[in-house]
Amino acid sequence: YPSGNLALIVTGEGDQLICTIQEDEPRTAKIRALFQSNGRSTCYYPNGDEWINMNIQGGQYLDQAGSRVRKWVWPNMSPGPHVPLSPIFISLNRHVGVRILAQDKIIVSFLAMGRLAKFNMGIKVQVTATSQLPAPAWLGKDELLLLAFRLRILQLFDRMRGCIDFPSSEQWNKMRPPAYLLTQAAKILERCAATDISDELRSSIAATVKQ
């Protein structure tokens, strides 16, 4: 960002790439979007709630109350006619926007100091007549783990900020986490309870998000 804060990070995990877009903030560095090379992507509202969630089968758009506004299936994911996906555009902040045109055209635009950069985060999945698609899973184990680790990072950032603002451990140890972190932890645990995963993984995720 023009402020010097990091806006976009690309990291590798095994054979996967993850693009993380952060908010223009010096300390909290809230995550505003995650794009994975396996086709899973999530955009977040400023308070951390999900805004748009996509996978190789389709996507959904949620309002700030958590209600589904739109849901779609990519045209090459199932036979038969499809309702065309109307282009979706959201502004994560005054510098970063996301435009969803097709599965292989998910454009992240970055505008600052009169210059524009564009990054295509979309992928193209070829489906043959003999291929078998995985069962629909908006929240699979990989996504639940990703959400849990993301929340843990935000929790650690919050504790670091508390240490800096209140050097006395007696003070910051008594401080409650921000409400949005508590809300996200509760939502992740609810989703774990509603998802078909092992008890071991469910316990691991619960331990990760525990303050």
From TrEMBL:
It comes from the Eukaryota. Residues 1-174 form the FAM194 C-terminal domain. It holds the Pfam family FAM194. InterPro entries: FAM194_C. PANTHER family: GLUTAMATE RICH 6, SIMILAR TO CHROMOSOME 3 OPEN READING FRAME 20. This is ERIP6 protein. It comes from Smithornis capensis.
